[in-house]
């Protein structure tokens, strides 16, 4: 499965897939705010990074025939809990009731300029 281009191109050295289907369940990798050139989108702005990430997840899920309404679980990793409100504000634009279950974990992310990473699980009917 190839993720939609250009914003989601993986380098040939990537050791993971953006998403995998297991029956009716689609699992996404942890998605971060990077563009096709590997540059961070929204440096210093957790809200902008969250928006880019959720748009990317939306595209990945669409390639598997599902939407954000089919998401049953989200794992949100934030570098700093001071960004929690900004993440939530954008998150509320993308998800409506019934809300997915979610986890929010403070984490050291791979790059210093990444403030947010989100992994989703969706169920197709």
TrEMBL record:
GO terms for cellular component: cytosol. GO terms for molecular function: deaminase activity. It comes from the Bacteria. Belongs to the RutC family. This is Pyrimidine utilization protein C. It comes from Cupriavidus necator.
């Amino acid at each position: 499965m190839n993720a939609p281009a250009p914003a989601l191109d993986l380098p040939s050295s990537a050791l993971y897939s953006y998403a995998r289907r297991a029956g009716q369940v689609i699992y996404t990798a942890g998605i971060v705010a990077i563009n096709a050139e590997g540059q961070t989108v929204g440096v210093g702005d957790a809200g902008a990074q969250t928006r880019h990430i959720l748009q990317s997840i939306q595209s990945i899920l669409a390639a598997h025939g599902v939407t954000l309404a089919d998401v049953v679980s989200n794992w949100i990793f934030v570098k700093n809990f001071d960004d929690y409100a900004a993440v939530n504000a954008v998150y509320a634009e993308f998800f409506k009731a019934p809300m997915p279950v979610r986890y929010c974990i403070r984490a050291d992310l791979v790059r210093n300029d990444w403030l947010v990473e989100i992994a989703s699980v969706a169920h197709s009917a």
